[in-house]
Write a structure and sequence with these properties.
Number of helices of chain B: 1
Order of helices and strands of chain B: EEEEEEEHEE
Largest interface: A-B, 26 and 28 residues
Number of helices of chain A: 0
Oligomer: heterodimer
Order of helices and strands of chain A: EEEEEEEEEEE
Radius of gyration of chain B: 13 Å
Largest sheet of chain B: 6 strands, mixed
Shape of chain A: globular
Distance between the termini of chain A: 40 Å
Shape of chain B: globular
Structural class of chain A: mainly beta
Structural class of chain B: mainly beta
């Protein structure tokens, strides 16, 4: 069974840093592109970042570029999001999501975790 | 403001059909046939419902269908059921710079 379990969220002050993790199981993690998608409380979905499998291509939304860093450790079946210079508008539930092999682009995610909540507040 | 535009809400009675629209631009949805739709129930993670405009993942009922014309994609749900009541989001590939854009979401109410 495919499972994605996020962790690392919490309350952080503006300007602070946080590292999110996503533990993957039930599939060959190294062969899949992965996404981070966030959802502010009561709001819609927002794509944050993507990392391809293998020799990774990495992409960021403009809203987080230069502040967030996505990475993966295929040996540990884990995906990460290092977040720095956090702002109030980064407050959201952060999901990690898998891009299925049959999808042509990263706009398609078939399995999602339950999310980890990041709250940026003083 | 989301990159793709969806109606805030739609509604229908059980057994009826409803269509949710998703309007983009020539930079995203209008150029690429990589539109996905997600269903999200309250407190739950999104569920992929349609990908690449009109393809259904395994396990999604054929009551769900997708299409696209020009800069607008559509999700049609026929034979509405109570469990279809949820938020629905569209997303599109938007090129190698922006990569992925989402719509603001549509709340479907089954009357």
């Amino acid at each position: 069974e495919v499972q994605l379990v996020e962790s690392g969220g919490g309350l952080v002050k503006p300007g602070g840093s946080l590292r999110l993790s996503c533990a993957a199981s039930g599939f060959t993690f190294s062969t899949y592109t992965m996404n981070w998608v966030r959802q502010a409380p009561g709001k819609g979905l927002e794509w944050v970042s993507s990392i391809s499998s293998g020799d990774p291509y990495i992409y960021y939304a403009d809203a987080v570029k230069g502040r967030f860093t996505i990475s993966r450790d295929n040996a540990k079946n884990s995906l990460y999001l290092q977040m720095s210079s956090l702002r109030a508008e980064d407050t959201a539930l952060y999901y990690c999501a898998r891009v299925p092999l049959h999808c042509t682009t990263t706009s398609c995610s078939d399995y999602w975790g339950q999310g980890t909540l990041v709250t940026v507040s003083s | 403001q989301s990159a793709l535009t969806q109606p805030r809400s739609v509604s229908g009675s059980p057994g009826q059909s409803v269509t949710i629209s998703c309007t983009g631009t020539s930079s995203d949805l209008g150029t690429y046939n990589f539109v996905s739709w997600y269903q999200q129930h309250p407190g739950k993670a999104p569920k992929l419902t349609i990908y690449d405009v009109s393809n259904r993942p395994s396990g999604v009922p054929d009551r769900f269908s997708g299409s696209k014309s020009g800069n607008t994609a559509s999700l049609t749900i026929s034979g509405l059921q109570a469990e279809d009541e949820a938020d629905y989001y569209c997303s599109s590939y938007a090129g190698s710079y922006t990569l992925v854009v989402f719509g603001g979401g549509t709340k479907l109410t089954v009357l």
